[in-house]
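Moderator note: this is an archived Q&A kept for reference. The question asked for a predicted structure of one protein chain; the sequence and the answer are reproduced below.
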Amino acid sequence: MPLRPSRPPAPFVVCALLLAAGCTTVGGSADQAGPGRELSAAELRASAVADADLGPGYTVTVMKPGHGETGSGGARETADVPACQPLLDAVTPAASVGGTVPTPGPGDPYAETDLGVARAADPEGGVYGGLLGYRAGRAAQLQADLEKLFGPCASFTSTAPPPADRSRKAVRTRHRLTRDDTPTPGGADASTGFTLTNESGSAVLSQRAVVARVGPALAVFTTVGVGAEPATVPDERIVRQQVAKLRAAQAKR
């Protein structure tokens, strides 16, 4: 969460990007999907799933936008093919400079809430989630634009600048993008899934994403895998519950 909308140049464009994958099943429940209203920043944050929504064994932590755990010391990783930048922004957002969040532009999300979900049954299988609020029509447009990336971005490279302390040189990475068949959860207008792999280095890093469009908002869920343990499909319960809670919030007047 593009087409700077590049999600993450700052924390927000995160989800949007992910949507890009229009590859997956698009649909949703006809009785639930619909335009939905734009939520305020406070309402969007309140619509994030909580421990109680998921049940025993789940722990949710709401985070500051721009999680950056897969980024390069806060520096933005740049795709050699400009059209592929949204994909990197979606899965490796850079930390905001000085801890501040830039003022969103006309096409950027006007609000964002990020969260991490851990499961007692799978301590290593955490899920990162992001909720992005867009003005009318923008989320759908981003999805349409991103759907065009599977061809040109099937294989591309990127460069991560050296850290501020210059402890290492810039790093070049080879990536591969593949679509994942992803069912659209009830209540969502569309759903997209893809896996982005980092194929440079001794161990392959994979990042799997599922993005759901719910009215004017995007909800993105990602997991990370390394080597023989590739990224897993984001927990379906988390996806379903988050979509349902977001849709319910949009339905309130």
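Archived answer notes: Residues 122 and 238 are 14 Å apart (CA to CA).
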